[in-house]
From TrEMBL, chains A, B:
It comes from the Bacteria. This is D-serine deaminase-like pyridoxal phosphate-dependent protein. The keyword Lyase applies. It comes from Dyella japonica. Belongs to the DSD1 family.
Length: 383, 383
């Protein structure tokens, strides 16, 4: 259940803009949807907290109070651990200079694991494991997106041996189909999910054939998590932006516009009638400069513009953004009519990329699922 | 004077990454350069603090301890006022719901002025001026960039009368040649500066002919501020990014790469040798998604990659960025050689857009102009 439109409009009318509005009802539906999809597939969900960066969101997303969780920075790990989350995977390739912070968290009782894809990193982890073994997963490159070893690279076994021989813990393999963000159809999404699964399972097989342990086989991205049909051999799935969704995910077809739980409130501060422009007080400082839908079938520019209740206006977009100014106009060529939006009108803009937009704010202004006044949930940031 | 390269390298080797590194020596040179250019032109410099958002930077940039200063948010005004800055121009069109905060700052002793370009806003300012007049400047559109009234629009006089009649203060006119960022030659930069000057002076003339006051004639952007040859009739110039400069400004020709005072430190965390990729721990979370040089003659992608001492590698760029991962590679087609950059190497990346990159951090790690250990200068954020 979400807050009633009329009460939302009343609540936003008395607040400063821009704010990061979180519709808790939509968020809970998104969380339930992925849980329900993964449960029959027999895998653990390890939500990625890099999008939310919030203890209040973590409490509603993590399947258990203690995790499991995925993070993209040690700052996220430290904040979550301070709030009682103890099973954490740090899913960005480990930089040797971060190992003292990893050991400090582990010594305090956090089961923090790290990720690597080179012998150099394995040697650093081994050196830091002298008194207390650090668990490490090998990163596998399933789709050429970024980091990782190819699924059948003999270096997988070599690095696995180096870890075990040196006294670190080899916890398994991990992959992420970042290229699934380029998918253009359901069949492509299903294929990316299978690519992810088979790459991780192949790499796990290499380790096991060599007599090495591989208890964890971790895959995931929001698109593949929702379209995986078969996860045989996989033990856990990671996903992050599914909690909120955004216009990039809607463009891929993973969600509907109506599922997007985040928006940025803004106020009309001017007009350029000759150009059909409405000037608002949300620029890239509030929304980020992410233009992730520019390469999709439907370019949503800087975001979809909604009324204060959260209902999108037909073909009304944030077409340009400066630091604290946004320019709202109808989609070029759409023929849609610009609604009357006098100075002072409060609007809400759906984000292109939820992770990037949320990062511009220190708190969520939450529309509670049970109704009632907006609540403030702090966000953390930094590294 | 800047810190010695060898001591910088030593200092960075022991720190976490990514950090926002500020070379104070370069900053002070940039600050001196614009001061020296404007002094003989007989105008006041009103630096825009939206880029720096820092009291320590403000102390080195503002010509007097009390200002004058320009801001893009009331949060910046409140922070600067708390630090003793009392002459502040809030240069984003006023939203009526912000007027109580404006009045609170003014009641506390801050000479805060606002900007508007419509009768609706003027009426709101008049209504809020009942007990204490608010000073307002009329925003003029000199180049079709964004907000403002055309320089000869009769509405200028109409709104001016509405302010004066209603008991607000008409403080003058303001314009900003935002389109100067598209300039491709020195002659275009000079022409944009003159466009800005003449638009503001024309609008001021309209007001004065109608018997209205116009004490302030305010122009400015970093490109035009540096290329103005004649500022007759102008009383003050605003600029912000000149304090740090960035790759967009270097692309326009307003500065050299060697003048850029900001960089982001990062650590090598992996390689994809087949692709010529070096993976680093600075993604868009550290650098922003701004790609402002993509439309310039030389596309610098996500930033120019330097060694830890701050010296650029030939044609080495951040070619892609995810949230916490950056991909470093040589410029496509350049034929440059990828230097050996083992895991753990510390690099520094020059920002495409200093305002956007700085906004991703809560503090500057400052290389002091006089040498010595790095210092931390906090940044403020939010609205």
């Amino acid at each position: 259940m979400s807050s009633k439109p009329s009460s939302v409009v009343d609540a936003l009318a008395t607040r400063q803009t821009p704010e990061l509005i979180l519709d808790e009802g939509r968020m809970l539906r998104n969380v339930d949807r992925l849980r329900a999809h993964l449960e029959p597939l027999g895998v653990t969900l390890r939500p990625h907290m890099k999008t939310a960066k919030s203890i209040e969101v973590a409490r509603r997303v993590l399947t258990g109070g203690a995790g499991p969780a995925t993070v993209s920075t040690l700052k996220e790990a430290e904040e979550l651990f301070a709030a009682g989350v103890t099973d954490i995977l740090y899913a960005v390739g480990i930089a040797p200079h971060r190992l003292p912070r990893v050991q400090a968290l582990r010594a305090a009782g956090c089961d923090l694991s790290v990720v690597l894809d080179s012998l150099e990193q394995a040697e650093a982890v081994v050196a830091a494991s002298a008194n207390a073994p650090i668990p490490a997963l090998l990163e596998i490159d399933c789709d050429g997106h970024r980091s990782g070893l190819k699924p059948r690279d003999p270096a997988i076994v070599e690095i696995g041996h180096a870890l075990v021989r040196g006294g670190a813990h080899l916890r398994g393999v991990l992959t992420h189909a970042g290229e699934s963000y380029t998918a253009r159809s359901e069949s492509e999404l299903v294929a990316f999910a299978e690519l992810e699964r088979s790459a991780a399972v192949d790499a796990a097989g290499l380790l096991r054939q060599a007599g090495l342990p591989c208890p964890t086989v971790s895959v995931g991205s929001t698109p593949t998590a929702h379209y995986a049909r078969n996860l045989d051999g996989v033990t856990e799935v990671r996903a992050g932006v599914y909690v909120f969704f955004d216009l990039v995910m809607a463009g891929i077809g993973v969600c509907q516009i109506e599922d997007i739980a985040l928006s940025v409130s803004t106020t009309v501060i001017g007009h350029q009638p000759d150009k059909g422009w409405v000037i608002v007080d949300a620029g890239w400082m509030a929304l980020s400069s992410d233009r992730g839908t520019a390469s999709q079938a439907v370019n949503q520019f800087g975001g979809v513009v909604c009324d204060a209740a959260g209902k999108p206006y037909p073909d009304l977009l944030l077409i340009q953004a400066n630091q604290e100014h946004g320019i709202v106009a109808v989609r070029p060529g759409s023929g849609a009519r610009l609604p009357p939006l006098p100075v002072g009108t409060v609007l809400r803009i759906l984000p292109v990329h939820a992770c990037a937009t949320a990062a511009q704010f220190d708190a969520y202004a939450v529309l509670p699922a049970t109704g009632g006044p907006l609540q403030s949930w702090p966000r953390f940031r930094g590294w």
